[in-house]
Amino acid sequence: MYSEQVMDHFTSPRNVGEINSADGEGTVGNAKCGDIMRMYIKVDNGVITDVKFKTFGCGAAIATSSMATEMVKGKTVEEALQLTNQAVADALGGLPPVKMHCSLLAEEAIKAAIEDYMSKHPSA
Amino acid sequence: MSMYFDNAGTTAIKPEVMEAVLPYLAGYYGNASSIHAVGRDARKAVENARAQVAAAIHAKPEEIYFTAGGTESDNWAVKGTAFAHCEKGKHIITSAIEHHAVLHSCQWLQKQGFDITYLPVDAHGLVSLADVEAAIRPDTILISIMMANNEIGAIQPVAEIGALAKAHKVLFHTDAVQAVGAVPIDVGALGVDMLSLSGHKIYGVKGVGALYIRQGVRIDSLLHGGAQERGRRAGTENLPAIVGLGAAIELITQDIESHVLRLIKKRDRLIGGILTAIPHTRLNGHPTRRLPGNVNVSVDYIEGEALLLRLDLAGFQASSGSACTSGSLDPSHVLLAIGLSHEAAHGSLRLSVGDFNTEQDVDELLAVLPGIVQSLRDMSPMYQNRS
Question: Who contacts B131 (Cβ-Cβ below 8 Å, separation ≥6)?
Fold first, then answer.
């Protein structure tokens, strides 16, 4: 039911972990629904130099978290804000319809981390 | 040897069953309703299987009706009773943890104007006899309570419920799909009027089951269009599958005590191994009133589907009550009914041990499970935040 890319990112997720003294941190989802994603970003001169995630959730939740972190790493904050859930799903070779909400959570988690960064760095 | 630990989902066909079935795929093709010699051979095979099923549950052969499976048997018992007895009343009592074949039939009947009481269960998954008795009303026409639960393995006090039903002159149906071969069944001693069973849960063929209907009990038919099954269930008999059901039920019930003991040994090795080796795990269901092959644990801080996928990659098949595996937004209705939080239900793992699993298979599973759980926990923000 999952594409090869989903299984690849599920079995070997990229960027798992935490960033101590992250410039931005965002958590979305809730345990009742079975998915929680937490993203950490390190920003240098407006560029996301490092990004890490922790996810509680199904295979698609873990794979979309991993893919989303890959897609924003090295991008400017402005570029990262353009990330869409559809782009994450497409990069994974598609998701089953019932799992599209996982890609939306991944998009929201990235944006939550960026918003946190922006609120702490209002001049940036 | 088998790494397949989803035997409550379905089972592999046993060689003895296959051997019994093959002639009815390869050679005997008759329609059991035909009067000629080819038809008579088929009739003989169907009636032989009927006698095997009847013997396994201590019923009379003429009380056994073959169906297309447990789902049809449940639908037939519930809806057939409702339609046949709606002039007496429109109230049905069932439990919150029934299989969807019963639950969704009841929900459908609600739309037709029936009144359904869904009895709660305790933290171990057991229905209370006092609740059953208190729910019975003058217009109650049916009690349908499963013999053993498919997810958590809880074995209900069916004989006691049967006695209550009899005392109040209410018909009693039990879904015994999971119980056959795991709990000795004597329909007379249990006091059941109807009992559903299935072939593919007991190493038989898929697409066949049976409904026991006590002699003299009147229920309406669901399928019309032929005089098969004593005029109560139309449709040409599924000859190979019926032969397979007969062979499978005879095989699984002939030495039930030692069969059950062998399963319990493997089950308890698995439960003990998991609870000892993996912190933050809990057993769901009853500690002793439990199907001999059922293991259901909640693994905190991780989600069930991810766990199943990782187990599958390691070669082990299992099941979960997580919403992600059910295709709905909510986790298992059974796990919620025993009081689990959504989180604990999402993190549930069901391992159902069968005859093909060896103790070595159990040990191999126990060798990989803690590492898989830990790697998912290392990724989990809930584990990071644990108090």
Answer: B119, B120
